[in-house]
Amino acid sequence: MINNQLTDSGRLRHFLTIEGLKRPLLTEIMDHAEQFSSVSNQHVKKVPLLRGKTIVNLFFENSTRTRTTFELAAKRLSADVINLNISTSATAKGESLLDTLHNLEAMHSDMFVVRHSQSGAAEFIAQHVAPHVSVINAGDGCHAHPTQAMLDMFTIRRHKKHFPDLSVAIVGDILHSRVARSQIQALATLGVGEIRVIAPQTLLPSNPQSLGVHVFHDIEEGLKNVDVVITLRLQNERMQGALIPSSREYFDRYGLTQGKLKLAKPDAIVMHPGPINRGVEIASNVADGPQSVILEQVTHGIAIRMAIMSMTLGARAELQENRS
Amino acid sequence: MKLRIANGRVIDPASQIDGQHDILVADGKIVAIETAGTTSSDFTADTSIDAGGLIVCPGLIDLCARLREPGQEHTATVASETLAAVKGGITSLCIPPDTDPVIDNPAVTEYIEDKGKDAALSKLFTVGALTQNLEGKLLTEMAALKAAGCVGVGNAYTPLKSSLVQQRAMEYAASMGLTIFINAFDSSLQTKGCVHQGAISTRLGLNGIPETAETIAVARDLLLIEQTNVRAHFHQISTARAVEMIAMAQQKGLPVTADITPHHLHLAEHDVGNFDSLCHVIPPLRSIRDRDGLQQGLRNGIITAISSDHQPLDEDAKMGPFDETTPGISGLETLLPLTLRLVDDDLLTLSQAIACLTFNPASILGIDSGRINVNAPADICIFNPDAHTTCNPDRLLSAGKNTPFGGWLFNNEVTHTLINGKIVFQLTTGL
Questions:
Q1: Considering the entire predicted model, what is its pTM?
Q2: List of chain A residues whose C-beta atoms are within 8 Å of the C-beta of residue B202
Q3: How far apart are CA A47 and CA B248, in angstroms?
Q4: ipTM
Q5: What angle do CA B117, B119, B121 make, to 5 degrees?
Q6: Got the DSSP string for B330-390?
Q7: Of A5, A153, A304, B151, which has the most beta carbons under 10 Å away?
């Protein structure tokens, strides 16, 4: 069912969701990212792996930061990048998703990086692209954000080394979070010891146990002795939907403060996919504090995306150093 | 014209007939049912159908089918859909009120009746709207609708938010001697959802429709039915819990019936798979537990009818990310084979299955149909119970090819469909 992401020989063709991908593949992605990390520190920040390839950023939802990291990743691989912000173009005039896609394909691109507000959009696009084209899911509705999950796993691996020993807590609006869903799948695949979700029931999906997580409604219980705390952004719309009463009460009950962080292990790391709402899901002094790895996540995002793009476009893993 | 249907296995649940019989038809009516082989001396048939090895049953009656006319003729028409219906052995169809314009006044009923006379191959019945323009505020002229031929009144897919209006509508319908056909759902819990709220909606990140969207509405409506004593029928029940509640109401003696669709009997939420829009339907495919509850409800006679909820859609309607696709399944041509599959699965006897498609829907509609007896109109379905066919969506006669049952193997096939004694569909020659 999920295997349309993989070629018959098990190599990545698309990157749509963590679900269905095996642990060795996730490890391989992180290993490649490790190699690409050094590229950003070079004087000439480029490798020629994807030279001559055309990558189209197809963003149906606004996102400056994710789009920028994909663009940087593609350019560091020497690919040509086109940015299409569809919300202002043909689709607003009623063009169907499929027609938009076919029109773009006529321009002979090699890869689409897609972000869309509907769950299943990346899957739909992958089903309809030409055989040689790859699709990377940059976030589809509430369903998946697999590249974010991979950079989060990469970050955890850099600090914590061994997944089975870890207890990881995800705090926040799990119900609407494609990031959380992908993170949970990645953590489970990598064999993490325990996954906890901490949120009021209104912000949890139904049957949360079906995701393989322990549910906590009380952050103080949920944070006890965890190794990793991932906080999710609380969107303003949630107050409108009668899901929580106010951001003040949310911060009081679920905001990550220094005091609550003390309940976790002393060397626990604090993560956030960004952008952060200071004073809502996380206190400023925690976001800027010594346990926070939030800014590192951003850097890792480029290396991870370089790894995923090069693997899906079939480029070889060896790094060609470009010294000058 | 005199016709003899010879040597078939006649199954008529209403009169408990199941055996080799000949059926004699003249002037559009059934004139005699004879033991196979006897020859009435005063009946010489002009033509005959050799039904040897075939099953002969009353023509099927579908309680809810959308023909898209009036209002959406670009998608499908009375002509295209009734053609599909008769191919599926369906001789009578009931149209819900959410046409465009809505069936909330006799003129629309008469339009559909006239259209039926011109273009329809099967008999058409209409359910009128409960409220004007289905807005849920003002009552329709139910007596006028009844006089124009409506078999009942209903809300189609529009919510009935005000319990007061619902109560008044039921009281009035009861006074006019009309059955109310209810699609029970709480719109605040249902509107944003596109799949069952459960493990699959959680996994796929799709807005879910909780079980309570149906059960809260059914509970409210059952209490109002008890208070108003209106005869009521629930369409497309999808939860096991609603079956339990309806069972209790029936035990109390309330005049309540219900139908289910074949897709709710065979599929469940996991069939959505990887965002398969062919499984996007409202009410949604629910859990396995719900499916089991629906099946048991059918077996135990709490649910007495199976109806297709036919919704033909063009290809574009299903082409897109899941929540952007239009819900609905094209079901006329799979109604019989999917129902007979339940017999193969030992859920129903053949007679019970046929009753769910013939006499029981006829009773619910209050029409004199769905049985093979002398002087009844000769609306008959003949099918081969030993065929081997594969459901091929592209070869459906309906304008809608939107079925999730593509590739399913069926062991039965309609060979002849007769309405008023005339053959309106025949397998070998087409039409």
A1: 0.93
A2: 205-208, 210-211
A3: 72
A4: 0.89
A5: 85
A6: --GGGHHHHHHHHHHTTSS-HHHHHHHHTHHHHHHHT-S-SS--TTSB--EEEEETT--EE
A7: A304
